[in-house]
């Protein structure tokens, strides 16, 4: 392998007809270039979509109540009901493998008017009554002060964490936020923290305009009693919420006297299922990129194989002489295979380099024109590049195989006879 | 050194079979210089190819330096060729993108001799054929006689038991032919066994023994008084 003479020969052969070698190399170069660029484009798309999901815990479902559609146990259909606070404990008791259950109440949203005031400032925001665990399910960065804690819950403190968007609307630029008060539907809450969320989709601005207050204070201040508006439930990493959701919903049906087959009484949104759907889209994209790339690469490889066959043909006499002088057939085979692999890898590397340059170009273009919807940071990983090199190595071997075989079929006596 | 018993060889030409060698018996001692003569189609090249293990016989025995040569795989044949035989061809058969020195070093490379030693040995043999100053030249920069001398140096470099020359002077004018024969005679004087296939009478008479082939059999085998090529050079 690391035989100086052999490498000299490989270079001698490949440089003896430079134009032809370059044309041959181009096929492989082009194939791997397309593979790399397609994979990078797919990755860019994937990154864009993933950014839309933000940091949200994807193994999560949201569940809320609607009105019943079937009569059951003497109760009529069309009855509305609410989740209660003790439903949370019931789910903990009856469904395994759950990581977080956050009961939530909400003010604002679609029907929100000017519900928050501070002095002369008025704003309409989503106000959530939450437990401290929600920060794990709907991640945000606390930029000053702190987030809710369990003492806030226990003592029903009237405190609030506000988003950057709320802060910029209700406060002057250099006003002190922490410790100040805001009035939510007529009730004063002290601001103890500010947050910022990282997602990038259309709700980006909306997401910065939320206010979080302790669940218990919310219930008391806004007269919710034991009611729970909706729940965010996250499963442990090992299990999927999609498999657990049936037993959760069943448990709720049982507790609220809903007909076991009433599928519309309890609404839910399975984020994990959506996420998986997108994941399989990514997988499909990747598969197409590989398929197209490898198909193009294949035609390049056939080109290499073809040229190697011609090289062997041209060198028939030389091979004959070498055999007469005592070169082993294996050594000839090795020589042809190494030439083929060398040519494929060199041209493949060139393709990878060009592909990387193009990706670099696209990235700096994206940087200069600002973010594009659903396309962020196209790139290929080191794993993909080494995978591509692996593919090249194998294809070089395959490309050289037939020519090498035909080279050792050359019988010295016949080779020497061709004058 | 060489022992051949009842050697047969035929070629299939479509449905016909061409019987080229019809029972050859032949022995050559170490240090002999034998000319194999015959008109074209007499089977002399076929005989040389079999002796050179480039081709296999249909039947008969071939013993080279006490080693029976039969049922050769290509790998084994390559090994034996490298160890036992040196070839000189009518058309020189140098590798044209390699310098004279590299051409001579080639058989040594197949013997896995280290690069430095290989170069030294090759240069030594080039010196012996009087082409030391041409070591770095490509075959295309050499004259016909020089090419053949490089080829002879290459054949000798592996220190073979037997040197097989197939019409070594066939492509050369008579003056260079004599130079090449002079070289062959000198190599023979050092004790090497050499077989020369030729159809030129004067070349044959510069050997020590002439074997006449006709239609696949040896019709004449005689020792002769060697004519030294030196006097013509």
Through-space gap between termini of chain A: 33 Å
Secondary structure tally: strands of chain B: 10
Largest sheet of chain A: 12 strands, mixed
CATH superfamily of chain B: P-loop containing nucleotide triphosphate hydrolases
Given the helix and strand composition of chain B, which structural class is it?
Answer: alpha/beta
Strand content of chain B: 25-35%
Task: Domain count of chain A, please report it.
Answer: 2
Q: Report the sheet-strand fraction of chain A.
A: 15-25%
User: Using DSSP, what is the number of strands of chain A?
Assistant: 14
What count of helical segments of chain A does DSSP give? 14
Mean pLDDT level of chain A: 87
Mean pLDDT value of chain B: 89
CATH class of chain B: Alpha Beta
- The H-and-E topology of chain B, N to C, reads as EEEHEEHEHHHEHEHEE
Write down the Rg of chain B.
17 Å
Helix content of chain A: 40-55%
Q: What is the N-to-C order of secondary-structure elements of chain A (H for helix, E for strand)?
A: HHEEHEEEEHEHEHEEHEHEEHEHHHHH
Main sheet attributes: strand count, strand direction, barrel closure of chain B: 6 strands, mixed
Morphology of chain A: elongated
